[in-house]
Design goal:
Mean pLDDT: 90
Radius of gyration: 21 Å
Strand order of the largest sheet: 7-8-9-10-11-12-13-14
Shape: elongated
Low-confidence stretches: 1-37
Oligomer: single chain
Bound molecules: phosphoenolpyruvate, manganese (II) ion
Distance between the termini: 25 Å
């Protein structure tokens, strides 16, 4: 079971620890109901030479006013988010404190996910793998976990090729109720076995709040799929865990919708969120979806959360997946998720779009070339 250390407000990320919702870091343990009904209204950025006494003074005065303060410590500056009713916050003389460099009202509808909230990109830890740093992290694996031989063989081959995280669905959202729905708990157990054999942390989909405790027992990262991007009760529940959550963009969702959905998760106290572009529906019929790579630079400038791209579902045709994976890296993705299967013709879902292990290994080499060309690494 992985432990989660990547809350941007946690000491491990060299940031403050003024969590208003309690400080439990245990995987799936539900934390106290957060007091987040009031929004982040103002962001205070301190001067590089601000002293600890000055920062403490600002925070205690914010508390005296009946408001809340979120402290994020960066290398050079401390960012203090002021949370409370906007009209009440606006009337306070926040710029008058010694040590303050700037005070900015948060006007965007998404607050905690906004880039300004942290002023730097967040790094999210999945097992021991960090997403959001210099490394472009590769996630790979089958669409569905099918049996022991399949998942272990794939885990070992993708690990050898350079993938850092194993993907595989145990609960599958299928368009038809007659299609394979996933192995459920048995699939999660096979993922755990594949993790033991390969050393790779695992990401798997959570479809329903009723399965959350079970999935949290096995997963290192929860995936909320495109079809559930606006399942707000599910978003709130995963927000009350401390497991990393990869939120996939809905197929008819705007970038802003995606950010607003992520805000649900953060507003419950879970800052371990990654956003995934996986293609949207357009009038185009030659491909399964239209991979919206516009979303990558836009998200990177709008939010501090890491951005994952899933070119497999984005284009849906094996032959074209590598090109879109390379383009996603060039566009600035922090992580790429690719479906890989050792016998695509036997796959119980998405066989037509997954790469063979050899094709994946070949792609990793090419991704490395693109990553290095833009100052990143694989
Ligand atoms: C998947 O990753 O297998 C999946 C079902 O993806 P999406 O939710 O993007 O369709
Ligand atoms: Mn799939």
């Amino acid at each position: 079971m992985s432990t989660l250390l990547s809350n941007p407000l946690a000491p491990d990320n060299k940031l403050g620890s003024s969590l208003p919702w309690g400080s439990s870091q245990k995987g799936c343990e539900l934390v106290n109901t957060p007091q987040t009904a009031e929004a982040l209204a103002m962001i205070i950025i301190t001067r590089p030479d601000a002293t600890e006494d000055q920062i403490e003074h600002i925070v205690s005065r914010i508390h005296d006013w009946g408001l809340r303060a979120e402290v994020s410590r960066g290398e050079m500056r401390v960012v203090i988010g002021v949370i409370g009713p906007e009209d009440k916050v606006r009337e306070k003389p926040l710029g008058a404190f010694p040590g303050v460099e700037s005070v900015t009202p948060v006007l965007k509808p998404y607050k905690l996910v906004s880039y300004e909230f942290r002023g730097m990109p967040s790094k999210i830890k999945i097992g021991n793998v960090v997403v959001g740093g210099r490394e472009v992290v590769l996630m790979a694996g089958p669409c569905s976990v099918e049996n022991e031989d399949q998942i272990i063989a794939i885990a070992q081959s993708i690990g050898k090729a350079g993938a850092k995280i194993l993907r595989g669905g145990a609960f599958k959202p299928r368009t038809s109720p007659y299609s394979f729905q996933g192995l459920g708990k048995a699939g999660l157990q096979l993922l755990a076995e594949a993790r033991r054999e390969s050393g790779l942390p695992v990401i798997t989909e959570i479809m329903d709040t009723k399965d959350l405790d079970l999935v949290c027992e096995y997963a290192d990262c929860l995936q909320v799929g495109a079809r559930n991007m606006q399942n707000f009760s599910l978003l709130r529940e995963v927000g009350r865990t401390r497991l990393p959550v990869m939120l996939k963009r809905g197929m008819a969702a705007s970038i802003k919708d995606l950010l607003m959905s992520a805000e649900y998760i953060l507003s419950e106290g879970n800052f371990n969120v990654l956003l995934c572009e996986r293609g949207i529906r357009t009038f185009e019929t030659m491909t399964r979806n239209t991979l919206d790579l516009n979303a990558v630079p836009v998200l990177k400038s709008e939010t501090h959360l890491p951005v994952v791209v899933d070119p497999t579902h984005g284009i849906g045709i094996r032959q074209f997946v590598p090109s879109m994976a390379l383009a996603a890296v060039a566009a600035g993705a922090d992580s790429i998720m690719i479906e890989v299967h050792n016998a695509p013709e036997l796959a119980k879902s998405d066989g037509e779009q997954c790469l063979l292990p050899g094709e994946f290994a070949d792609l990793v080499g090419r991704i490395r070339g693109v990553a290095e060309a833009i100052g990143r690494e694989v």
